[in-house]
Amino acid sequence: MMHWIIAPVLLPALLAPVIGYVMRHDITLARVASMAGAVGLLGIALQLVIMSSGGETLVYRLGDWPAPFGIVLVLDRLSAVMVLLTAILALIVLWHACASDWDRQGRHFHAIFQFQLMGVCGAFLTGDIFNLFVFFEILLIASYGLMIHGGGRERMRAGLQYVIINLAGSTLFLFALAVLYASTGTLNIADLAQRLREIPVEEAALVRVAAIFLMVVFAVKAALFPVHFWLPGTYSNAPAPVAAFFAIMTKVGAYSIIRVHTLVFGPGVEATDGLMASWLFPGAVITIAVGALGVMGARQILPLVSFAVVGSMGVLLIAVASFTPAALAAGLYYLVHSTFAAAALFLLADLVLHRRGSGALTMFPATAQNGLFAALFFGAAIGMAGMPPLSGFLGKLLVLDALRAPEVIVWAWASVLIGSLFTIVGFARAGSVLFWKSTAVAVQGAAPARGTPAPVTTTELVPIFAALAMLGALAALAGPAAGYLDETARQVFDHVGYIDAVLGTGPEQAGEIKP
């Protein structure tokens, strides 16, 4: 019963090679196994949320080696929420990939997808920065395979750019780990947090260098300015279901910033006090601007959604940059919202592209079921832009309410509000061209490349409705959700509780789990 903590890593790790070697010639078996794995992961994630709901930090020591010498997985409210978010999104994306036959474009889609789940869940659960690097590399390899799924020259080119940028980030990650280990003799997150608090400021130059290196690495994953440029091209050229799942990939970078730069380098650490916020806050402000301007200037539907994702990461990270429990709680609420909003838009874009034959934001003959697509686009767009009644509006209100300190209020409020206005205008323009003007004006356009596609089926619509339903549920249950995430944020800032639980030096040792 107590081995649930390692299950989100083990389940996809064991399932992926079975699908890859045994079922790769039978798409039906692969689908059944992959969907069963996703449902199983969702069940495990719910169990982890229940286990962590008491506020304890639970530690799983692999091989029964004590920290900081052995590998540990750490479960708290934050990691449980992130694993649950991953499991729900994975089930939605897998459903769409099967219903739309995207998984038939390549033989190993489901096996690679399971490896991707392994890397994401491992990154959320690890208690060691070196193993965070290992799971990042699993993410990179699997995401590259998914990125080029189905082939194509443009997709290969975008995938190559994606790999080069991430390999550069991985190299910098190794440099940061080497500097940290040379300075402290450990890479366990809890042990690092304890030791860095004992290092005098005048002896912490190398530690500050390592902190900046790690911030750059995590900023690449989170698509933070000025290392965000890989995201629009990558997401725009990836298969739409893959891009929808990649919505959680940027959250891995945000999670790493929250976990490492709050606990290890954050408040209370004299050697790095204020260093992270001085870089993260202006970067987040500019990221919001870049995303909003990108939405305004987009001429294709997938770049439109991709730049909206960039802007949403700016809103999330501007909350994280305050390094306070209240701002982090607001950021976590917005994190959950933006993940489902981006997924809904990417999945809808896939259905629209398949039936229009072009992603250009120009007038084409209206598709069958044009009204249905317009309604779904309207719902997803207002969610991403942050308009009522969906959860994006509440998420941005929470972020703005948490950012009222005199030194940040002007830039934070101006960037979020103006960025939201530009995003609304960009989506309104795109929606009017795609779904309104196409019905009002007879346009002679090229026929869809794949002929006249069949009308969208109920099965294909289920994932989009599920993602939108999550936005509605998050708004309807905003009170309980915000309360839970407030407790989650407070636990993240409970440095002593985390350190005592992992190192076994305090009363939290009761939460220790051994295999």
Set down the secondary structure blueprint:
Blueprint (H helix, E strand, L loop, with lengths): L6 H16 L4 H26 L5 E4 L10 E4 L1 H23 L9 H17 L3 H19 L5 H32 L4 H8 L8 H18 L7 H8 L2 H6 L3 H15 L11 H23 L3 H20 L4 H32 L13 H16 L5 H12 L6 H32 L17 H19 L1 H15 L2 H9 L8 E2 L2
Parallel strand pairs: 1-3
Antiparallel strand pairs: 1-2
Helix pairs in contact: 1-2, 1-4, 2-3, 2-4, 3-4, 3-14, 3-18, 4-5, 5-6, 6-8, 6-9, 7-20, 8-11, 9-13, 11-13, 12-13, 12-17, 13-14, 13-16, 13-17, 14-15, 14-16, 14-18, 14-19, 15-17, 15-18
Describe this protein's structure.
By secondary structure, the protein is mainly α. It is built from 20 helices and three strands. It has helices spanning 7-22, 27-52, 77-99, 109-125, 129-147, 153-184, 189-196, 205-222, 230-237, 240-245, 249-263, 275-297, 301-320, 325-356, 370-385, 391-402, 409-440, 458-476, 478-492, 495-503; strands at residues 58-61, 72-75, 512-513. The chain has a three-stranded mixed β-sheet with strand order 2-1-3. The protein starts with 6 loop residues before the first helix and ends with a strand.
Compose a concise summary of this entry.
By secondary structure, the protein is mainly α. It has helices spanning 7-22, 27-52, 77-99, 109-125, 129-147, 153-184, 189-196, 205-222, 230-237, 240-245, 249-263, 275-297, 301-320, 325-356, 370-385, 391-402, 409-440, 458-476, 478-492, 495-503, and strands at residues 58-61, 72-75, 512-513. Helix 1 (7-22) packs antiparallel against helix 4 (109-125), helix 11 (249-263) runs parallel beside helix 13 and helix 14 packs antiparallel against helix 18.
